[in-house]
Design goal:
Layout lengths: L7 E6 L3 H13 L3 E6 L11 E4 L1 H10 L2 H6 L1 E2 L10 E4 L7 E5 L8 E4 H11 L5 E3 L4 E6 L5 E5 L4 E4 L1 E4 L6 H13 L6 H4 L6 E13 H7 L19 E5 L2 E8 L4 E9 L16 E3 L2 H7 L5 H9 L4 E7 L7 E2 L2 E3 L2 H4 L8 H17 L8 H30 L17 H20 L3 H13 L2
Parallel strand pairs: 1-2, 1-12, 2-8, 5-14, 12-20
Antiparallel strand pairs: 3-7, 4-7, 5-6, 9-10, 10-11, 13-16, 13-18, 14-15, 15-16, 17-18, 19-20
Helix pairs in contact: 1-4, 1-11, 11-12, 11-14, 12-13, 12-14
The chain binds flavin-adenine dinucleotide.
């Protein structure tokens, strides 16, 4: 940071993908904003293993100057003539069958280990950005002057001019924003309804996740199709999507082809929108492997091989944040999962957090944005990112149900099987359309041009 007085202070709650990315964007485009990141844990870590980013996210990485480093830790889909993902109908014990393959390299994601990605961002974080560990934000309060006081679980406080909650699914920033709004928000909002937005709801989806060494898999199942693209280059990964009724498996290699990342996904529509049974400490927990094996007992051998080799799967009860009436109030904003945690069936949640961070960071860093302009900058961010993130969340849920044979097919004839060739073709079309919606969404670099135009209009 330059020696001159900063134009304002930004506090970011949460050093996850969204929070760290935001700090990096602000620091890249402005040298006179003081940035403090407050992280609840005693280290910058990230839960889970593999993560995928679509080309739109990679374009942001390019703008930020971290693209080459991200590419260095990524595996990529095969060239155009090799489809990936390959979708199979797999809940047939003796062996399933190929449903279709998507030849869409232009829209297909790069995959990597989450921690590798976090390290890339950390390496680009300027030293002037202070990351404070073991600082669990509990709440915040705004003074009449606009200054914000952050209260931490260790009973300490800090002050800031702008607060961004990037504190994930169970965001305290979101909770505090809506608890406050429920007391003070003027019409047209109905105050009595606002406190319900503090909470999340269970999506009905549970996901068992694990990593398996590829050499172990290939010793056990030498011709496993997931290896078929690996002979070209270990940075090429084929995605296999093994679909069944109420469940699916998805797997792809990461770590230069050394590890297979898989997710075993189950869906119970009766539980969608309910409170998850048991304490929230059980939302992510290690589970006995047998539990997962029993759920996929009817699966074909290529899917069962992943599960057989799993050592300690962890089960994630997937919770979502529904559509919120707003993401910003005054000089406070929420981004990423705090604002729009969705099901992971499009592999786009972290990408959406990065898009938020990109746009918000650029708006805050813009020379035209003085402290008095921050509420307007935040409103511009919300106006552009919110509809996109909500569409991704809807499409992701739709996608999951399409994988799992849970969407209605109005064209199904009496007596026709939902897996007849014609019905599968209709389902394929819907799947491709749902996935294409992400590709067709406005490019993040165009979004920035639009945001800057709005900022300069004043
Ligand atoms: C099974 C699964 C697979 C997924 N796969 C993909 C994928 O392939 N591609 C993709 O784009 N997305 C994927 N996602 C979604 C993605 O993981 C999330 O959308 C993304 O991690 C959100 O980033 P975030 O920074 O908003 O939140 P988080 O990653 O949750 O980070 C929040 C940070 O805030 C900290 N924190 C929490 N509370 C506090 C507090 N009170 N005070 C201070 N710090 C706090 C946390 O410790 C954490 O460091 C997947 C999600 C799941 C569940």
């Amino acid at each position: 940071m330059s020696n001159t007085q900063p134009k304002f202070r930004v506090a970011i709650c949460g050093a996850g993908i969204g929070g760290l990315f935001l700090a990096t964007v602000i620091a890249k485009f402005s040298s006179n904003i003081k940035i403090d990141v407050y992280e609840a844990h005693d280290a910058v870590t990230t839960a889970g293993a593999g993560i995928s980013f679509r080309p739109r996210t990679m374009r942001i990485a390019k703008e930020l100057g971290i693209y080459d480093d991200v590419v260095a830790v990524s595996t990529f889909p095969p060239e155009r003539d090799t489809p990936s993902p390959i979708f199979r109908v797999s809940d047939i014990k003796e062996g399933g069958y190929e449903w279709f393959g998507e030849k869409a390299r232009d829209s297909a994601p790069a995959s990597m280990h989450r921690m590798d990605f976090v390290r890339v961002i950390q390496n680009h974080l300027p030293k002037s950005c202070n990351v404070h560990l073991q600082k669990r934000v509990q709440s915040y309060a705004e003074a009449d002057s606009g200054e914000i006081t952050i209260h931490f679980a260790d009973r300490t406080t800090a002050t800031t001019d702008v607060l961004v909650g990037a504190d994930g699914l169970r965001s305290k920033t979101r909770r505090c924003m809506f608890e406050t709004a429920a007391k003070v928000e003027p019409p047209p909002f109905d105050r009595s309804q606002l406190s319900k937005y503090t909470d999340t709801s269970y999506s009905g989806y549970s996901i068992y996740r694990d990593l398996i060494p590829m050499n172990k898999l290939l010793a056990h199942y030498p011709d496993h199709p997931v290896k078929s693209a690996m002979y070209i280059l270990t940075t090429i990964a084929l995605v296999l999507q093994l679909c069944g009724k109420g469940k699916h498996l998805v797997g792809y290699t990461i770590n230069g082809g050394a590890m297979l990342n898989f997710a075993a996904v189950t869906y119970d529509p009766a539980l969608e929108g309910t409170d998850y049974p048991g304490p929230d400490t059980r939302w992510v927990e290690d589970r006995p492997k047998q539990e997962m094996l029993d759920l996929f007992d009817d699966y074909e051998p290529m899917g069962r091989a992943w599960l057989d080799l799993s050592a300690t799967p962890s089960r994630w009860a997937i919770h979502v944040v529904g559509k919120l009436p707003f993401w910003t109030r005054g000089r406070v904003a929420i981004i990423g999962d705090a604002a729009h945690a969705a099901t992971p069936h499009l592999g786009a949640g972290a990408g959406a957090a990065i898009e938020d961070a990109w746009l918000l960071g650029r708006l805050l860093a813009h020379p035209r944005t003085a402290l008095a302009d921050v509420p307007r900058a935040l409103a511009i961010f919300e106006g552009i990112c919110k509809p996109n993130a909500e569409r991704v969340a809807d499409k992701s849920m739709e996608n999951g149900k399409l994988y799992d044979f849970y969407t209605e097919d109005p064209l199904l004839q009496p007596g026709e099987d939902e897996r007849s060739p014609a019905a599968l073709e209709r389902r394929r079309e819907k799947l491709v359309n749902a996935r294409q919606a992400i590709v067709d969404a406005e490019d993040p670099l165009k979004q920035w041009e639009r945001a800057e135009g709005l900022l300069l209009q004043a």
